[in-house]
């Protein structure tokens, strides 16, 4: 719990680990691959465990709840993980389930469990950003020039690099704001009105359904998402640097 203007605020977190990771080209799902002898998912949960987050909901593939409870939560003593629930067909379905499972929180962080380099500094900046603006996302300014292609694969636009960020997680929100935004998305989906709408992160839901500006806060260039085999090699290198 944290105190804001004399009021005790509760911070929740949803850790998403329900993806199948088809691009990893591995029989083992990416969240369970071993980094320095521990599952990728371990590192995100450890960071949340050691932060001022009060409550963590872990979202995993259907049928793997007991495995994660036994082999990850109990094995490594993650006492802040209060619930382990099955995810949905898409990432945003998993977030909807997570938002329904987390209880009695004022702010919520939504984090991809495949980003093992979450740190307490990033968590603190996320919480502070959410407290100030009700919605913020972690990211970093891009290093490379970005090109926007047209339908034929030709360069259409070259955006100003100084204004382009690569977005990471966690993404942090006032709970009532993100809950309402996802409720509107769910309502529209149930009505069959989401055709052509591609949801790739939580900020998009707030931007689209609440017409709300989301604040950017700095994460880290090390805060990578494990997606391909090359990412595992990079992650091993980062861990080696930290240990030396």
Outline the structure in words:
By secondary structure, the protein is an alpha/beta fold. The chain has a single domain (2-138, 171-243), classed as Spore Coat Polysaccharide Biosynthesis Protein SpsA, Chain A, CATH 3.90.550. Helix content is 36%, strand content 25%. It has a 7-stranded mixed sheet, with helices on both faces. α5 packs across α6 (202-210). The longest helix has 16 residues, at 175-190. The radius of gyration is 18 Å and the shape is globular.
**How far is the N terminus from the C terminus?**
33 Å
Low-confidence segments, ≥5 residues, pLDDT <50? none
Strand sequence of the main sheet, in spatial order?
7-6-3-8-12-9-13
Number of helices: 7
Looking at CATH, which topology would you report? Answer: Spore Coat Polysaccharide Biosynthesis Protein SpsA, Chain A
At CATH's second level, what is the architecture? Alpha-Beta Complex
Give the strand tally. Answer: 13
Please tell me how large the radius of gyration is.
18 Å
Main sheet summary: 7 strands, mixed
Let me know the average pLDDT: 92
Concise synopsis of the structure shown:
Helix content is 36%, strand content 25%. It has 244 residues and is an alpha/beta fold. Strands 7-6-3-8-12-9-13 form a seven-stranded mixed sheet, with helices on both faces. A two-stranded antiparallel ribbon has the order 1-2. Strands 4-5 form a two-stranded antiparallel ribbon.
